[in-house]
Amino acid sequence: MWRCWVIAAFAIVLSILSWSAGPLADSLKAESITLYEAEVLIYLLPEAHEVRSQGMDVGWEQQQSPSLNLDDFFVFWVVNAKRKDVHGSVTIGFFSVNKHTADIWDNDLGDFVVTPELQGVQRILREAHHIDEGTVQKFHSQRPFLERR
């Protein structure tokens, strides 16, 4: 329950910061989101909600690999951190958060993760980091895997 309060407080602080910048925010250069902010988005995944509704919790590990586009993405292995019966895999999935847009990519399904809650937090993050629609369009087609040559 305390994590929900932390996430809510985080969203409020970002909202205040972006609001207080006012017209100046429009003239500022877009900034990448932080690792911490990407982790908040991972915590809000629908799969994470499902695991928590079963009385467990999620954990994640940031992935590093030469085959990953780490310039543009934070890549996470997301797991069930408190699974009671440890037989079998604890993997929930592999997800990537675009550093430039805050979009979440499901590496297993090959598609974006979209929920109203995530979209609300993404909007707040984009405002706080001066990420406009042009920046979103520029980086929206990026994918977390590098092309093999």
Index terms:
149 residues, alpha+beta, Nuclear Transport Factor 2, Chain: A, 5-stranded antiparallel beta sheet, 6 helices, 41% helix, 17% strand
Radius of gyration: 16 Å
**Tally of helical segments:** 6
Helix content: 40-55%
Question: Which structural class should the secondary elements be placed in?
Answer: alpha+beta
Low-confidence stretches: none
- Overall shape: it is globular
CATH topological fold name: Nuclear Transport Factor 2, Chain: A
Secondary-structure arrangement, i.e. CATH architecture: Roll
CATH H-level superfamily: type vi secretion system effector-immunity co pseudomonas protegens
Distance between the termini: 47 Å
Largest sheet: 5 strands, antiparallel
